[in-house]
Amino acid sequence: MKKKNVIFVMLIAFVFGVSLINAQPGQGSKRGGNCMLPELTESQEEQISELRTQHLNQTKILQAKLKEARAAHHTHMVSEGINQSEIDAQIDQITSLQNKLMKERAAHQQSVRNLLTDEQKAVFDTRKQGRRHMGKHANEPNHRKKYCGRDA
């Protein structure tokens, strides 16, 4: 009986150890950067990082405003005495914010793309197309395996 317990505990420890090893993040590029762009130089990585920080700072405010506008629209839609002109104004505000976000994202993508070599641009452009097909599955554990060409 003791021998079975020892074997069982060792098996559990082995399975736990293997799961920890598999849970480690992948390397991506040489310095652990963007998994989808081959051989980024240090300069490119620094510039892309700066652009990303600027982009995130600009879009987080727009996203917060968009979330607020959607919440206000939802509240108005479920309340009594709906006024169509107010609904239309809220919809216009929501679409205006979405428009600004889309333009900011497009500008950011072009800024990043302008830093890349021709080979890197080809991969970057392909990545953008592949992202459309990920949809709701982008956060699933195996998505990195499918789209980064490596284990998750």
Describe this protein's structure.
The protein has 152 residues and is mainly α. It has helices at residues 2-22, 42-78, 84-113, 118-134, 143-148. Residues 26-33 and 143-152 have low confidence and may be disordered.
Features:
152 residues, 0% strand
Write the layout of secondary structure elements.
Elements: H1 2-22, H2 42-78, H3 84-113, H4 118-134, H5 143-148
Mean of residue pLDDT values = 77
Strand content: under 5%
Overall geometry: flat
User: Radius of gyration from the CA trace?
Assistant: 23 Å
Percent helix, as a range, is over 70%
Q: What structural class is derived from the secondary structure elements?
A: mainly alpha
Q: Could you give the count of β-strands?
A: 0
Reported for the largest beta sheet, the result is: none
SSE string, helix = H, strand = E?
HHHHH
Number of helices: 5
Low-confidence parts: 26-33, 143-152
Intertermini distance: 39 Å
Tell me briefly what this model is.
This protein has helices at 2-22, 42-78, 84-113, 118-134, 143-148.
